[in-house]
Design a protein that fits this description.
mainly alpha; 29 helices
Amino acid sequence: MQKHSHRFEILLGVAVLLTHGYVALAPDASLLMWFRNDDAFFYFKVAQNIAAGLGSSFDGIGLSNGYHPLWMLVCIPVFALAKFDLYLPLRLLTVVLAGFNLGAGVLIFRLLSRLTRQPVAMLAAVFWVFYPGIHAQTTQGGLETGINVFFLAWLLYAVSRLEPDRPPTLRQMAKLGLLAALAVLSRLDNIFLLLILGVWAVWRDEKFRNQAMAYILLTTLGVLVSFIVRLGFKGFYDFAVPALAMIAVSLAIRLPVYYFGGLTGLDWRDKTKALARILVVVSLASGLVGLLMLAVSLIPAVGGFPRSALAVDWALALLSALLVSGMGAWLENNGAERGLQSTNSSRLKSALRSALQNSWEYFNARWPDWLKRALVYFGILGGTVLVYMAVNYLLFGTPMPVSGQIKQWWGSLDTVYGKRVQDWDAFLGFNSDGRVVAFATLNEIMSFFLLPKTVPFWGLLAGYALVGLVLLAKRETGFGSGLDRSAWLAALTGALIHVWSYNARGYVAIREWYWAAQMLVSVIFAGLFWDALLKKLPLKMLAGAGAVLGMAVFAVSALSIVRLVPYDTSRLGEDLTADIRFLEANTEPGALIGMTGGGMAGYLIHDRTIVNLDGLINSVAYYRLHRQFKSYEYLDRIGLDYVFGNEYIVTESDPYGKVFDGRLTPLKTFVNPHVLFRYLPGGEAQP
């Protein structure tokens, strides 16, 4: 079996090398189609400048940290080769990214091989590596997604190897911490998933681990829903800070109160007493949350909040406790081995006292081990984040990437970059028309790749949930065991909170490549689900069907690659460098040209410098002036010569209309509505 596994991994590697070697050797114009994502060239130009000794700068003028650090470290030696040929690093990067995605596919295969039959694990790996919807985000484009999915997949694989009945060793926790540190440096917003996985790993040998994950998920959702129900989406963003504060307060209070109150191992043989205890414990926790929030709201940085949200939150917390506790009891066969907090006392007061005593005794016996594990994992992860923030503050004047701060600021403007979400589907991670955003891969798997509107997503989700409950009830399918051993509920919890964190902060201009964790969660779930559903299918039939589907996915991928990157450049439908030639023909050597975006132009243009106007890859000094609509002071200081871009964006939309008012004179139209303007400092422009 092991030899067979190695053969599959080698075959998968050969297929990846052949398809991506084809891309790496393509003509220059075709190769650019592979890297047509403008944001990737922000990395490339900064890496080129760092390698040339110009510092962490896109334009060679202002220092910028608008990128994720680990991918930049990979890009620097690659783009040192740009001094010989600008396209040579792109060819090398094609293979590098393919290697990272292949590594992620192999790790998915090894993870699922321990939990499912091997044909299912093989198909999942092939699907991950070659399915165009995933491949376009992880391997094409040149962004950090490839290295991100690799370290996330490695971390999930390492977590899945923790034995369920054996406490994780400190050495194992240190390994997980190092992988988490690499994952957070791959993409900083992985922090939510990494925190949740760390908590799950600390409690790996505890029966309440999955209930704790469910409470974390539902508590977070409950607070957000309570504020939105009370205020509506438009009003929510005026109280986003107290809402986020209440999530932190709720998690800090509810988890220990639920544990010591006996909700994580509730005895449901007497349903009346169980319901009474839930009511008392949840009400106690909600009361403490309310009191602490009243105190926290006195902090000026937090501010007040609608008190009625507390009542809505209490009702949702009660519903969540009923769901989680009841589900936990059902999965434990109506009371068998429910945990250390169960009690048969005849009176509620005595039952609560007994639960508290049992929980406290168990806690006293276990907390030293929990603390040691937590200190190792979170010490490595937290130390990495703190060092990163300190270095950023010292070098750039801000602890976090300026690009994220700008996108959150955009949400407060009337800007072309997007608007804050205004409906439930979008807020939870789905478009209002039913098409999934964060969980696009999951939707496509569930709908068998039908057209997006053929089957409503929520209907599909309900159907899969019902089938999943049946599979959980039948333990011989191994579905429940697979979900537990893969830490899938913890990964899902982190992935969902990741989505909600963006929407709760009013973040706009969110891109598809943000959702690497959601893709991983979807593929792992699909492997576990379909293996359990097809448990009675003979292995030979399963292997045959898997081989056919795998070859079909590979064929579709190979065909899409050939169409995207043709060797016959006359078949290209778009000239990605036409704007660069236009700028070179209509500006003098040495000119400073401002563009919103401008990544590809900044990397490929000759004898000119592109200055990024949106601020995503500009300096902190520019961003701070830009927020005040005074970034013209920075542009005057550096001696900007031209502005090139969409006429409406740069002359009317926020924030550019206010910044460039009276400072632009149109010179020549490239392709309507893109215009080259002369920039004149001091408001001296003529119409």
